[in-house]
Amino acid sequence: MSNRPSESELACQKSEKISRVGINRMTSEDAFRSAMEVSRNFPFFESSMFDASSVFADRVRKTYDTAGLKFLVEFLSETIAMFDKTVFRPCDRDEPPYLLLYTILSKLALLSLYPGSLVILPAGTDDPFADESAHLDADLFEETSSDEGEQEWAEEYRKSAPYGRPQLVVLRAPPEMRASRNVNLETAMEKGYKAVMLVEPVKLTLFKYDIWQPMATAKELAILNGKKDPVTVLLTNAEKWYFASVQLVGEISEQGLPRPTRNEFRACGYRFRLFACKYFSCLLLYPFIIGGSPKATVFARIHNVLYPGVDISQVAAQVERGSDALRTLADEWVKACMVDLDRSQKLKDMEREMMASEQETKDMEEEEEALKRHQLQQQQQQGQ
């Protein structure tokens, strides 16, 4: 029998693996194989994971309501335009993609105004603005290709990819509670939150270097999620978008598991299912459309992951209801602030009145003194 924790035990124990994966930076297939004990049928190449003929690729042809797609584009356009004009200057830093993805996910999370709502937490290093030069590891990269273009990309990646780069995890709170930001990832998982999406924002995207870390983290989150809740990986630099979903099937030694399907693999003593692997080429910060734009379908993809089974055509109405609810919450929240501001304004008015009164008294005293001096001068002149 395996001495690994069972699914029921996972909910009540701390996950050391989340912390370990967040610190250790996997940037090679060999490191991934070794650390995760992954089986050979895992798709180690971009083509074997995302090609249309792959057993892991997304085989469900999705059609979206045009009104829903239009709403999503309009809903997120203000955020993206703001980042493009104000934050992405200069555009060669890692923080802006991290902040942009965080803001997009946070805005989409506003669509969830019911128990079991969403929260976005960091995984990996806690500080996305840490000095990257202190985290680089030159030994992580080996130039194994004679292709000069690929070597140049690798060199750029070497300079730009921080060791322990932060990831974003979208979590769904249990149905009986509302998501709280006052938890870290480990505590949230212990309380029964489920990981929905793991986002790896990068400045440059090299699949053969970047895919291993989010895949490793996703498997550990899938174990903590249990068998019902998959985790979707999103690897992106806001131009290349890789989506892949990982779901726990069970422990390898567990009795009564279904027969393995073609899109299953083994890792860490467990069986996993890898599915819905999809790649989009979409320059998010390029506002013009040449020969069609996949922006709307990228947004729809993210929305479907965050809200599985929700009809996208109903999103606009949901937001309208949500806006009313948010306005009510805002009115309640702002009352204390308004009272405090009124009190502050009254104090300022009183201070101004006191200062004006003091100045008026001072002016009167100065006038009285001036009058006395004038009278004294007149008396002296008359005496002479």
Provide the descriptors you would attach to this structure in a database record.
disordered N terminus, 384 residues, seven-stranded mixed β-sheet, alpha+beta, 2 domains
Describe this structure in words.
There is one protein chain. By secondary structure, the chain is of the alpha+beta class. The protein folds into two domains: about 5-310, no CATH class; about 315-384. The chain is about 45% helix and about 15% strand. It has helices at about 5-10, 15-25, 30-35, 45-50, 65-85, 95-110, 150-160, 185-190, 205-210, 210-225, 295-305, 315-384; strands at about 120-125, 165-170, 195-200, 230-235, 240-250, 265, 270-280. It has a seven-stranded mixed β-sheet with strand order 1-2-3-4-5-7-6, sandwiched between helices. A hairpin with a 3-residue loop joins strand 4 and strand 5 (about 240-250). The longest helix has about 70 residues, at about 315-384. It is elongated, with a radius of gyration of 30 Å.
> Structurally, how many domains make up the residues?
2
Strand content: 5-15%
Low-confidence stretches: 1-23, 125-146, 157-164
C-alpha termini separation:
124 Å
Average pLDDT reading = 76
- Helix-strand pattern, N to C? HHHHHHEHEHEHHEEEEHH
Largest sheet: 7 strands, mixed
Structural class: alpha+beta
Helix content: 40-55%
Q: Helix count? A: 12
Task: Characterize the overall form.
Answer: elongated
- Alpha-carbon Rg, integer: 30 Å
Per DSSP E runs of 2 or more residues, the count of β-strands stands at 7
In what order do the strands lie side by side in the largest sheet? 1-2-3-4-5-7-6
